[in-house]
């Protein structure tokens, strides 16, 4: 009899060896991967697969969560520019925790998510003046070498995790009683004039005041 229409069935383990080799070489753009759990498993039964969410999808998830609100509202964040297709620049807010020198203070931070986020940690800088063991007093930069979450950044961490951990750091023994820079009094005329000047500058308006 002829062999027309017949097919060859590849034995199970040969098929799995082919799949193992492909998994080890990498698949496509690297967002999907898999491999055996135990190299000594002769039956090749147990495997683990990983799907890596692309950067912008991940940031969209974080944006949605930030807009819905986080926990008790003492930590929040959002994008600076809704038209920024790269979703790089963000603003975070932390309300100082009770029973510390930070109680009642509102701290604003800038977060920058580069092209390698979340593989690499975002840059974090306090815009509000603060005295903390992990923050550069002059620049407000959170020093990665002094802040474990940044030093040991994991892909699973989020901006929410980062802000929450900074809030916890405010409650740590070395920071909870640390003397802080004076707060700006928002009710003073000087502050009001500075605020008006900033708004005018941002709008590109030139005004002449007769005093």
UniProtKB/TrEMBL annotation:
Residues 54-209 form the UBC core domain. It comes from the Eukaryota. Pfam families: UQ_con. InterPro entries: UBC, UBQ-conjugating_enzyme/RWD. Heterodimer with UBC35 or UBC36. This is UBC core domain-containing protein.
